[in-house]
Amino acid sequence: MTLQQLHYVITISETGSLNKAAEILYVSQPSLSAAMHDLERELGIVIFYRSGRGVTLTNDGAEFLTYARQVYHQYETLMEKYGEAGTLKKKFGVSAQHYSFAVKTFVEMVKQFNMAEYEFAIRETKTREVIEDVSTLKSEIGILYVSSFNRQAILKLLKTNDLAFHKLIDCGVYVYLWKGHPLAGCQTICLEQLSPYPCLSFEQGGNSSFYFAEEILSTNEYPRVIKANDRATMLNLMVGLNGYTLCSGIICEELNGSDYAAIPFEGADDPANCQMEIGYIVKKNQILSQMGQLYIEETKKYLNNQMK
Hints:
This protein has helices spanning 3-15, 18-25, 29-43, 59-82, 100-110, 127-135, 151-160, 191-194, 231-241, 253-256, 290-306, and strands at 48-51, 54-57, 90-96, 118-124, 141-146, 163-171, 174-178, 189-190, 199-202, 225-228, 244-247, 260-266, 276-283. With 308 residues, it is an alpha/beta fold. Strand 3 (90-96), helix 5 and strand 4 form a beta-alpha-beta unit. It is elongated, with a radius of gyration of 22 Å.
């Protein structure tokens, strides 16, 4: 088994096609197929199902891919630090719940690199997918929150996937709404005041429990609920329907605009339920790449400035 074969497996899994992978890797399709057959023979497993529609991972292949990504990622990190500059683009990805600050600090990090030499990715996605992306090293870093309510469930899942959670900041709960909303002038807002208006939340998928909700206090009874799957849609619903969501209050006006307000939420029976601990997740004992280290530095800097 070689590093080249691991690179082949990762590229094929990402493209879902031997032909597309061969084009990216600058090898012939027969040579790529032969390399995969040799690897499967050596390992004694079938990594890919092959059909006229492309290739998909087998169960054994999905498990092997997890380890292959870890090994190849560490190889790339070593080459970044000690190897001579090559033509292969280095990859760096972040997966996050829908936080504008995560995108803002990603932008600041990317500006410090030559984008012609790197392949960057920022993925705003569901909570479970944030965890899966980091577990499989599709992304090096994940951004999410824990609270007194979801902590046990989230940390158990992280432990199962060999992931570590590192705190970035503690924050309270805020009502995020349009500045034209009837409640926008309030100093604080309680749940009773919000009852006439639709509560907006990010969709987590049909089989996801409320432990994966991005909005704190997900077990509260909300008379009106609308789900969305991206920040732009949620902002439109705030304007069009006077909707609101519960959030950390850390809002990047540069990206979201200045037409929205974050107002402190009050009225929870247990004050501990109104505390969010936002942090980042990585593989345990992983050496962060140069991009990863810089991304965390930019994120900490931005969050600290916001809390002053």
